[in-house]
Design a protein that fits this description.
By secondary structure, the protein is mainly alpha-helical. It folds into three domains: 95 residues, no CATH class; 66 residues; 68 residues. Helix content is 85%, strand content 0%. It is elongated and about 160 Å long. The termini are far apart. It is found in: Chromosome, Centromere, Kinetochore. This is Centromere protein Mis12. Keywords: Cell cycle, Cell division, Centromere, Chromosome, Coiled coil, Kinetochore, Mitosis. InterPro entries: Centromere_Mis12.
């Protein structure tokens, strides 16, 4: 693949198929090493070979190494075939393939930017849609509350109307008559109270006149003029 058209194409795209193949082969070798390390530990445990028994431990290591060598030889051959096949067919550029020009590359880049902008707009629209959805739920709740309040007011109004219907004209006449009767009784009570107050006032005046008459008759003729004027003032107050 070195020096071929395929290599030039992949280099222009910052791609290297050989690096990918080498990493895949290294990964396989790492898995094989880990598998045989586990196999060695498990075999020592199963055969009950301790570290102090160097002869048995060495024999086990030699046997595992031989099996590992046989397995790796087969794996290496298969990996070489896989590498050759991949480079020849999987990473080969078809005949007639032409690298995109700089303008086309710029167009692809612009398309990518446009896609990013479109994604951002879609995200913004999703956020707005979520906000509108939440607001719609709140409005639905408020509408249901208003409907419940309206139903409650209608029910109260219906009860009031039913109550008013109970009071027909005859009932209103009876109520008016009762109110008139109560007003008459109240007026009579007020008149009686005024009469009692007037009688009490007149009785008080008469009593005061009697008392002042006694005081005046008890005065001597040698009384002073000031005492007479005082008595006259008391009479005027009555």
């Amino acid at each position: 693949m070195e020096g071929s058209k395929s290599e030039a194409v992949f280099d222009s795209m910052n791609l290297n198929p050989q690096i990918f193949i080498n990493e895949a082969i290294n990964s396989v070798e790492d898995y094989v090493d880990q598998a045989f390390d586990f196999y060695a530990r498990d075999a020592s445990k199963s055969l009950k070979i301790k570290g102090s028994d160097k002869q048995k431990s060495q024999a086990l290591s030699n046997g595992i190494a031989r099996v590992r060598g046989l397995l790796l030889s087969v794996i290496d051959n298969r990996l070489k075939l896989w590498e050759s096949y991949s480079l020849r067919f999987c990473f080969a550029v078809p005949d007639g393939f032409v690298l995109p020009k700089s303008e086309e590359s710029s167009s692809v880049h612009q398309d990518g930017l446009y896609d990013l902008e479109l994604d951002a707009e879609l995200d913004s629209l999703r956020d707005k849609l979520n906000v509108v959805g939440k607001r719609s739920v709140e409005l639905d709740s408020e509408l249901q509350a208003l409907e419940r309040s309206s139903v409650s007011r209608e029910r109260s109004l219906r009860l009031v109307n039913e109550t008013l219907e109970l009071y027909d004209e005859s009932s209103m006449d009876e109520i008016f008559k009762e109110m008139t009767k109560m007003a008459s009784e109240l007026r009579a009570s007020v008149e009686r109270l005024k009469t009692r107050r007037m009688k009490a006032s007149e009785s008080a005046k008469v009593k005061r006149l009697k008392n002042h008459g006694k005081e005046f008759s008890a005065m001597t003729f040698d009384g002073k003029l000031e005492d007479l004027e005082k008595f006259q003032a008391e009479l005027r107050k009555m």
